[in-house]
Amino acid sequence: MKWANSLIRISNHQVETLQKRLAVLVETRMAAEMKLTLLHAQAEAESAHAGEDAEAGFYRIGFLAGWRFRRDQAVADIAAAQAEEEGARDALSRAFEELKKFEQVAELARQAELKETARLETAALDELGLRAAQRAR
Question: Residue 10: how many CB atoms within 10 A of its CB?
Answer without folding.
Answer: 13
